[in-house]
Amino acid sequence: MSIASKYKATDSFPRLPLLGGIALVCITMGSVAVARLAGVSPHINIRTEAPIATRMLKFEDRRDGSVGVIDAATATDIAVAAPGTNGFLRGTMRGLMRSRKVRQVSYQEPFRLERYANGQMVLVDIVADHAISLNAFGPTNVAVFAAFLPIPEGASK
Q: What is the three-class DSSP state of 132?
């Protein structure tokens, strides 16, 4: 018995789910059209003002499996992430290095870490023209990178 002979010509796809799907697509496209016509940009610019703190950083894989965090201006170690620790730091840097590899740019160039008055923390890859808002990953992960910035005078740690 063939598949075609199992179904009658009067059998059809259920109309309610079909109409629901069509309505969802129409509402989504209509919302996007209204937003674009209203001048809403699809890009969010979190960096609207000058940062209150910045630091140029290099990240170096070490033979023992650790990752060194180095101040690019002074070439001094700021921190060392022991092997098997700091998964967020390692994952973020792995992603940024992959982006550099795709763009065929140097791994040796530093990254810029920026803190803004509104609390935003941004890691900028100047060479690959890429920025990551670290706040999107929660306060615990922001704290990993915040430790690499100098503490403003008069502030407590």
A: strand
